[in-house]
């Protein structure tokens, strides 16, 4: 039972050529956008186990989208494919000329899903948005997503417009993995308490290898930030830099990474560092040398608390001790020092 | 081990220089400022050998002309050789793949670049016959800093080379001080071997022709460039560096700083164009240049996300006015970035394992460098003002 729970089955479906494998490669296999043209067509189903946050394994089924495959999924393979699904990600190509036919196929998939795993989450990505002129994007996306909703039966569907050429891809996938992480509320409770303690404007947790936003909290002031897509943009910026670092230090992108980054400017201070084995923490605090150093020290102390908790056996999902977190004591200790 | 001496050698050295010129201790009061800077100028000039200062004077000459103090860069070449694309990518941050959609240039595009040093970039339409008598040569080539000639290496370049030779010979008669920079462009599509062949061939043809016309040792330099990698930035950096009057001073300062702090490589970047205007005297390798240049991008992009203004955003204490940032990568390489003034920032690659503990010293040395740098720049500005009054 427990093993089953940890392996979440994620189905990636959509018409052939809609970009399923491309985005999978970018998010999970460290491809850059222009490399994906090398990918060939996916034959049948490609299974991959993606480690996310260490011990959450996504069991990703990338289903080739050619019509012949689609038919077998819906007929002879039906039970095999659609049972135990945690998440269905369905990709629509915005440039498709046969919208009605796409929607019919989608509806058939939804029917099958309702039959075998009625509790699955459904995400629909309207992909290749970069091909639409900027001024029409929102309108066309809205039309398309309402069409999709009308064909989704009882499932509550989240739709995202996405493109591999900008940060929208990260927004979509961050939304998806956000739904998959166990005990997320515990993590969020901890983070907001922590952010309050160190007076941070914003605290973001990024997954280590994909740089997807796991979760974030922001203070009242941090909420006023006019840039809404900043988390995705950060993912994009940092991942691009990771690729650059890998290229120039002659390693693979998978093994490249940051140990720590400090940035101090007159408007804000930022700290990026490893938090747990699988996450980076990203702190935004107001300027002020002493306050900043204090925040960094507190983060280090909180991290120690985490690793201790992890060592003592509470290692499922996020190694998090129960509500009386060690950061309380730790940060008090440091604050007293100042 | 090098770190122990950092503080003494660099900061004291600079302070000592100031002390020598002034009997009283080093203070930055406004009344004594110009005197201190003037004497610093003397010292720094004195420190560089005569040959170097003569070199910098020669470069200064065009910009000293009273008519137009801004040095000018001319982008020339046959049509569709990529002049406008270069200008857009380097000076307007256009992504390289979007340059496909640039219209062809029909008139001279004049771009003023306001940065650490003001200069103009003139983008010439390829089909313009500027050597005809109806064009005023003085208007085009007077007060010129450098002529950048772009050759499309994927195309048949014989025409372009012939035309360049004609241009050089004409310009040379009237304005012998002009630097001629030849960009052998669009080399991204050529194989390594073919690239070298084309380079050799073009260099040979141009120097032969010029020699035949009795013009030897022409100030012509060649670069292999492409907008799809960093080579065009690197080439432009070299071009701009020749226009900077204080280059040798800057290089000396950076080398001193780098030696004392154990930096592997240090660049002084213009933040907007990501051209480096000076670096230490160690050889430039593309890897470190690329990383430093991308790191600037990271900081600029992040700043864009978090530099919003709101009355409720308050500082929680004292902090330096200039931005400072460093990152430690997986292989313990440290990149260190410090804002020098509005336009410039200093980026260094540090591979010395002791660097992480000595971060404070490094910061302090960089601040000292910053003071020296701003002195160097304010000095040349003051001199210009003296001339006009």
What does this protein structure show overall?
The complex is a heterodimer of chains A (338) and B (389). Chain A has 338 residues and is α/β, with parallel strands linked by helices. Chain A is built from 11 helices and 11 strands. In chain A, strands 2-3-1-4-5-6 form a 6-stranded mixed sheet, with helices on both faces. Chain A has a 5-stranded antiparallel sheet with strand order 8-7-11-10-9, with helices on both faces. In chain A, helix 5 (99-116) links the parallel strand 4 (85-93) and strand 5 (121-127). Helices cover 47% and strands 17% of the residues of chain B. In chain B, the strands form 2 sheets. Chain B has a 6-stranded mixed sheet with strand order 2-3-1-4-5-6. Chain B has a 5-stranded antiparallel sheet with strand order 8-7-11-10-9. The N and C termini of chain B lie far apart (51 Å). Chain B is elongated, with a radius of gyration of 23 Å. Chain B is α/β, with parallel strands linked by helices and 389 residues long.
Structural class designation of chain A: alpha/beta
Radius of gyration of chain A: 21 Å
Q: Give the helix level of chain A as a range of percent.
A: 40-55%
Major sheet description of chain B: 6 strands, mixed
Q: Classify the oligomer.
A: heterodimer
Largest binding interface between chains? A-B, 46 and 40 residues
Q: What helical percentage do the residues of chain B reach? A: 40-55%
Shape of chain A: elongated
Strand ordering within the main sheet of chain A: 2-3-1-4-5-6
Share in β-strands of chain A? 15-25%
Q: Could you give the count of β-strands of chain B?
A: 11
Alpha-beta classification of chain B: alpha/beta
- Strand tally of chain A: 11
What is the CA-CA span between the terminal residues of chain B?
51 Å
From the spread of the alpha carbons, the general shape of chain B counts as: elongated
Low-pLDDT windows of residues of chain A: 1-5, 315-338
Mean pLDDT across residues of chain A: 82
String of helices and strands of chain A: HEHEEHHEHEHEHHEEHEEEHH
Radius of gyration of chain B: 23 Å
Tell me about the biggest sheet of chain A?
Answer: 6 strands, mixed
Family (chain B): Belongs to the GTR/RAG GTP-binding protein family.
Keywords (chain B): GTP-binding, Hydrolase, Membrane, Nucleotide-binding
Subcellular location (chain B): Endomembrane system
Subunit structure (chain B): Component of the GSE complex.
């Amino acid at each position: 039972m427990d093993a089953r729970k940890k392996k979440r089955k994620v189905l990636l479906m959509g018409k052939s050529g809609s970009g399923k494998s491309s985005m999978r490669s970018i998010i999970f296999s460290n491809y850059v956008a222009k490399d994906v043209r090398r990918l060939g067509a996916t034959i049948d189903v490609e299974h991959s186990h993606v480690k996310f946050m260490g011990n959450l394994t996504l069991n990703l089924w990338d289903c080739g989208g050619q019509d012949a495959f689609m038919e077998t999924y819906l007929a002879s393979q039906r039970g095999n494919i659609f049972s135990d699904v945690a998440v269905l990600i369905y990709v629509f190509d915005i440039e498709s000329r046969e919208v009605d036919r796409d929607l019919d196929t989608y509806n058939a998939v939804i029917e099958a899903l309702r039959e075998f795993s009625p509790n699955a989450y459904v995400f629909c990505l309207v992909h290749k948005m970069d091909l639409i002129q900027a001024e029409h994007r929102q309108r066309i996306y809205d039309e398309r997503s309402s069409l999709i909703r009308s064909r989704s039966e009882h499932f509550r569907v989240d739709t995202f417009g996405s493109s591999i050429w900008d940060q929208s891809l990260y927004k979509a996938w961050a939304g998806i993995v956000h739904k998959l992480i166990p005990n997320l509320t515990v993590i969020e409770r901890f983070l907001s308490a922590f952010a309050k303690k160190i007076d941070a404007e914003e605290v973001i947790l990024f997954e280590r290898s994909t740089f997807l936003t796991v979760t974030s909290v922001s203070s009242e002031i941090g909420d006023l930030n006019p840039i809404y897509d900043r988390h995705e943009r950060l993912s994009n910026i940092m991942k691009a830099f990771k690729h650059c670092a890998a290229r120039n230090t002659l390693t693979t992108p998978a093994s490249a990474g940051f140990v720590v980054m400090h940035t101090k400017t007159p408007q804000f201070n930022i700290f990026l560092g490893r938090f747990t084995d699988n996450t980076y923490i990203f702190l935004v605090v107001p300027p002020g040398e002493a306050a900043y150093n204090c925040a960094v020290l507190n983060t280090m102390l909180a991290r120690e608390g985490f690793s201790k908790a992890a060592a003592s056996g509470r290692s499922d999902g996020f190694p998090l001790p129960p509500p009386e977190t060690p950061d309380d004591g730790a940060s008090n200790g440091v604050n007293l020092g100042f | 081990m090098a770190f122990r001496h950092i503080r003494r050698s660099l900061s004291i050295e600079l302070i000592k220089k100031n002390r020598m010129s002034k009997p009283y201790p080093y203070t930055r009061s406004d009344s004594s400022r110009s005197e201190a800077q003037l004497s610093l100028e003397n010292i720094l000039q004195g420190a560089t050998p005569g040959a170097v200062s003569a070199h910098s004077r020669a470069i200064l000459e065009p910009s000293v002309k009273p008519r137009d103090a801004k040095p000018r860069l001319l982008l020339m070449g046959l049509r569709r050789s990529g002049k406008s694309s270069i200008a857009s990518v380097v000076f307007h941050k256009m992504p390289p793949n979007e340059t496909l959609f640039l219209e062809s240039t029909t008139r001279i595009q004049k771009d003023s670049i306001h940065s650490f040093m003001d200069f103009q970039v003139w983008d010439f339409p390829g089909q313009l016959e500027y050597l005809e008598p109806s064009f005023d040569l003085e208007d085009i080539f007077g007060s010129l800093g450098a002529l950048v000639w772009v050759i499309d290496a994927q195309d048949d370049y014989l025409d372009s080379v012939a035309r360049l030779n004609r241009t050089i010979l004409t310009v040379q008669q009237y304005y012998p001080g002009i630097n001629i920079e030849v960009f052998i462009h669009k080399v991204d599509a050529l194989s390594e071997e073919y690239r070298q062949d084309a380079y050799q061939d073009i260099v040979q043809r141009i120097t032969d022709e010029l020699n035949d016309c009795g013009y030897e040792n022409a100030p012509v330099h060649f670069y292999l460039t492409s907008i799809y990698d960093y080579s065009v930035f690197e080439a432009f950096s070299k071009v701009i560096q020749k226009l900077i009057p204080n280059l040798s001073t800057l290089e000396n300062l950076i080398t001193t700083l780098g030696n004392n702090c154990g930096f592997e490589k240090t660049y002084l970047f213009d933040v907007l164009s990501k051209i480096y205007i000076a670096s230490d005297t160690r050889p430039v390798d593309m890897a470190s240049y690329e990383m430093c240049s991308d790191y600037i991008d990271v900081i600029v992009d992040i700043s864009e996300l978090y530099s919003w203004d709101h009355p409720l955003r308050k500082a929680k204490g004292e902090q330096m006015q200039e931005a400072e940032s460093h990152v430690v990568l997986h292989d313990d390489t440290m990149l260190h970035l410090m804002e020098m003034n509005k336009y410039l920032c200093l980026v260094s690659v540090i591979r010395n394992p002791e660097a992480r503990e000595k971060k404070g010293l490094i910061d302090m040395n960089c601040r000292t460098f910053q003071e020296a740098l701003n002195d160097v720049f304010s000095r040349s500005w003051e001199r210009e003002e003296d001339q006009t009054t």
